[in-house]
Structures are given as structure tokens and as C-alpha cells.
Write a structure and sequence with these properties.
single chain, 223 residues, 2 domains, four-stranded mixed sheet, 8 helices, 44% helix, 12% strand, disordered N terminus, DUF2913 family protein, DUF2913
Length: 223
């Protein structure tokens, strides 16, 4: 798969860079810089690698190398790198972004079909799946802790047509997040990070799918 690059200032004026392109370029650039650095040898510790990537991100932020779309993420990761050192997991973070966003970089159609595949796979894994209930207020699902996915019936019907996803769709999920992220990725989907406060179903988090896999913020990562 070819590298993703961020165009120079002149090219930027003629095209729009998506969040997906920007975050993938950052991840690949950071890992490439780490691999090419003469100061980071094969015996470098995770603390040294984290320090290098933290400096890389701080410089990228200061020099505005990447679109403003990912400025909040860069600011957060620089702060974490400086305060947590190796525990910030910056290398692992960039590897996860590179793998996950790289895998779906060419997937932008058929997301309705892909959602159906995800729901079918969830059922095979023992999930309870509900798409026949209108959710217009706080609800409680009594499922004895069994993993579950709930999608409001009206949203499910209005946002899916001819195998495509027409608009943002919310999934209320109770499950291991690593498993959920991997199942979504296996079906060619990016899910937003889980939000417990925004959920209308007790003990569930809300996750969102966006048309063309174009999330406005970092997706739920598998690792």
C-alpha cells in the first residue's frame, strides 16, 4: 500500500485533506522517523522511543505540519508523552493507527452491508442484537451482562439504503471494546470511541458510524 502524504501549501489550497488522511500520515511519518533515527538504535528503550516521538509530535505541532483537524490529538499526546514517558505508549498508538486506518483507507462504500456483517458476526459471538426498538429516551436492557448491540429502529431504517450508510448512526453497545473494535475493523468499519455519558441505554456506551468511514475524531482502536 502506498504512503499517504500531506500536500504542500500550494496543493492544500486545491484539495481538502480528510481527518483519516491526516492521522494516517502522522502515524506513518512518526514511525518512519523513529525507524530512520540514528539516535534510536535497536536496543533503545520504550522510554527513549516515547521521548523521540513526543519531540516529533511537538515539532510537528509547532511547525503546523499537519492540518488543524488533528491538532487536539497532537496536543494531548505531547502532554501525555511529557508526563507519562514510556507509559504514554506513543509507539504502540502510532502503530495501531497506521495498521487500522491503513486497512480501511480504500473502504468508503457499502457501509450499510458492512454494518449488517458486523451485526451478524456479533450474533455469532453470542451478542444480543436489537434493531426493532425506537429509542427516544433513557432505557434499561435486562440481559444479565450478556454483550449487546442496540440501534434505534427509526435511525436504522432512515440511515441505511441500498447497502449504504446515508448519515451518522449511533450504536449502543455493551461489550469488550477490544473485541468490538476488532469485529468492526474485520468488517471494514471505523467506530468512534465509546461515550458512556451520551448513551441512552444503561450499562452501554454509544458509538457512532459515519458515512464513507470519515469520522471527525480518532476511531476506537483495536490496541
Amino acid at each position: 500500500m502506498g504512503a499517504v502524504s500531506i500536500p504542500g501549501p500550494e496543493a492544500k489550497s486545491n484539495m481538502q485533506i480528510s481527518y483519516n488522511q491526516a492521522i494516517l500520515a502522522l502515524a506513518r511519518d512518526g514511525l518512519a522517523a523513529l525507524a530512520a533515527s540514528s539516535a534510536i538504535g535497536p536496543k533503545a528503550t520504550e522510554a527513549q522511543k516515547s521521548h523521540f516521538l513526543c519531540n516529533f509530535m511537538a515539532t510537528a505541532l509547532k511547525e503546523k505540519r499537519y492540518p488543524k483537524l488533528i491538532a487536539n490529538e497532537l496536543t494531548l499526546w505531547v502532554r501525555q508523552g511529557r508526563s507519562l514517558g514510556a507509559n504514554a505508549g506513543l509507539r504502540q498508538l502510532l502503530e495501531g493507527i497506521s495498521q487500522q486506518y491503513g486497512q480501511i483507507s480504500d473502504i468508503s462504500t457499502g457501509l450499510g452491508h458492512r454494518l449488517e456483517q458486523l451485526l451478524a458476526r456479533a450474533k455469532e459471538q453470542g451478542f444480543l442484537v436489537f434493531t426493532d426498538t425506537v429509542i427516544d429516551g433513557k432505557l434499561r436492557l435486562d440481559a444479565d451482562g450478556v454483550p449487546s448491540i442496540v440501534i434505534s429502529h427509526d435511525a436504522y431504517c432512515s440511515q441505511l439504503k441500498d447497502g449504504e450508510l446515508l448519515g451518522p448512526l449511533t450504536l449502543y453497545v455493551r461489550a469488550d471494546e477490544g473485541l468490538l473494535a476488532q469485529m468492526a475493523l474485520d468488517c471494514g468499519l471505523l467506530l468512534s470511541a465509546g461515550d458512556k455519558k451520551a448513551s441512552l441505554i444503561k450499562h452501554h456506551k454509544s458509538y457512532r458510524l459515519f458515512p464513507r468511514n470519515q469520522l471527525p475524531c480518532l476511531a476506537l482502536l483495536t490496541k
